[in-house]
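For reproducibility, we list the full input for the BIS(adenosine)-5'-pentaphosphate complex.
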Amino acid sequence: MRLVLLGPPGAGKGTQAKVLSQDLNIPHISTGDIFRDTVKENTPLGRELAGYMQKGVLVPDDIVNRAVFERLKKEDASGGFILDGYPRTKPQAAVFDEMLKKSGMSLDIVIYMETSKNIIVKRLTGRRICSKCGANYHITNIPPKKEGVCDACGGKLIQRDDDSEQTVLKRIKIYNEQTAGLIDYYQDKGLLCKVSGDLEVDKLNRVLNEFFVKEGLL
Ligand code: AP5
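The corresponding predicted structure, in tokenized form, follows.
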């Protein structure tokens, strides 16, 4: 199955993608994660990416498309994938469509996670990630067993550079300006399935599972 998760920052795309990836046995491909890994390498490209991401603005389309196409060439994506955070602009969606067509592939579904602004701000300003393994927590919604320490690997929990309130508000604005148009784009293609990103993690996961079972995809 080839699946795209579409939604504003903080909709819970990464959180749901991790569970779905296990349930559907296909890789979770997050452009944000790919770029954060590149930033850690401290190469010229990594430093360029850090500049965009820290400001909460989008990485240029050509860099993004190249990174995604490289990732999709890997063997584990041959049987399907969950894209989280891509495409994020209409030009990215158009180039992605072209790439799929050339490879004789098509998307099966785009899940749009509609989420309220106040919930987004609360989730992102309270998000903590493990500096070692990248596991995702929230100070009140999904707290670790021991404050500041990752349950999975014992790593130190940190706040993402782009999760300050000011940058979160900027990311929401950019989402509305540059990404939200993809809702109609995929609706017109008959691929869109809308769910509420406001739901709690488990409830939303149940809704998605029920949907996949109903569609015969799980
Ligand atoms: P990226 O990492 O993709 O950030 P984002 O899209 O802004 O999404 P987030 O990771 O913030 O949110 P999410 O929806 O995945 O929520 P999560 O599950 O983590 O991109 C970062 C940057 O990279 C961009 O700003 C841009 O610069 C660049 N970039 C990436 N892709 C690009 C592209 N295609 N084009 C151009 N530039 C690109 O959850 C958030 C928090 O809420 C967590 O704490 C979690 O524990 C909690 N939570 C999750 N779900 C729930 C729930 N249902 N109930 C309660 N709490 C929840």
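The first strand starts at residue 2 and ends at 6. Strands lie at 2-6, 28-30, 81-84, 109-114, 127-130, 136-138, 157-158, 192-196. Both points were considered when choosing residues for closer inspection.
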